[in-house]
Each structure stands twice: as structure tokens, then as C-alpha cells.
Amino acid sequence: MADHQEASVTLPSDPASVPAARRYVSDVLAEWGLRSGTDTADAVRLIVSELATNAVQHTLGLSPTFTVDLRLERDERLRIGVTDSHPRRPRRLPATAQQDSGRGMAIVRWLAAERGGRLSVTPTGEGGKTVWIALPWASPVQT
After folding, report:
1. Full-prediction pTM beyond 0.90?
2. d(CA 4, CA 24)
3. Which residue, of 6, 33, 47, 83, is most buried by count of CB atoms within 10 Å of its CB?
4. Ranges of H-type helices in the chain
């Protein structure tokens, strides 16, 4: 495997783009050797789903698109980034047991931490932000 692999897709900030982002990530990870249906693949799909949903719902119409970046660095670390053009950093919203929303960032942080990863947010040069998840990458066993 190469020292560094990258893949990226830009999608409209529309709810229909969330499943498209999940499919794209699943396809790329499969090309890189991570089979669908594994715990790691499922966790990454959920992370992308939550971050893409946030990019669509919480940018208040100020981000017409969002971009999903995948980077596999030296077969050791997978970085997943979701970029939008809204400057506000993601924040945990209050959520009660009866609410259906407000838990996305808590879920993302938990999934990342459970796999030995971390979450970070970086501003873009255009005034937006990228929410990054970095996860250890164990070379999948080829069968």
C-alpha cells in the first residue's frame, strides 16, 4: 500500500447527500481493504453520517455544499474530515431523553475515543471549518 492515500467528494448541503456520503466512504474504505460490515467500517459510516448531517442541518443555509475527505497515512492512521463553509464550531446541544437530536457530536466523540481516535476542528482559509476524526488504522487481513 502507498504511504499516503486520499479521496474526497463534495456534495450539496441536502439531506439526500448524507446517505451518498456514507456510500462513498464505504466504497473508498473497501478499496483500501476495510470490508463492509466490520465494527470499524460501521463506526466510520456512523461518524460520517453524523458529521454530514451536522453540515446539512446546522449551517443555517450558509454552506451550499460540504466535502468529505479521507486520508490514509502510512497505513497507520485514517483521517476523516467533513468541511463546510459555516464558521461556527460544532457544539453539543442539550438533549433530553425524549428528543431525537442533539447527540450527534457526543456519538462521534465516543466512537472515535472507543477506537483510540480523537476529534479536532480546524478553520478553513475561506472562513468555514473542517471537523476531523483521526483513527488508528490496523491493516485489514486479506482473505
Report:
1. no
2. 19
3. 47
4. 17-31, 39-57, 104-114
24-55 residues labelled b (16+ CB within 10 A) or e (exposed): bbbebbeebebeeeeebbebbbebbbbbbbbb
Question: Within 13 Å, how many C-alpha atoms sit on residue 134's CB side?
Answer: 9
Identity of residue 1: M
Q: Is 142 exposed, middle or buried (0-12, 13-18, 19+ CB in 10 A)?
A: exposed
Q: Are 31 and 6 in contact (CB under 8 A)?
A: no
What is the tens place of the pLDDT at every residue in 45-66?
999 999 999 999 887 778 899 9
Domain 4-136 has CATH 3.30.70.3280: no
Indicate the domain borders of the chain. 4-136
Task: End-to-end CA distance of the chain: give it in Å, rounded.
Answer: 16
Residue (of 82, 65, 80) closest to 6 by Cα position: 80
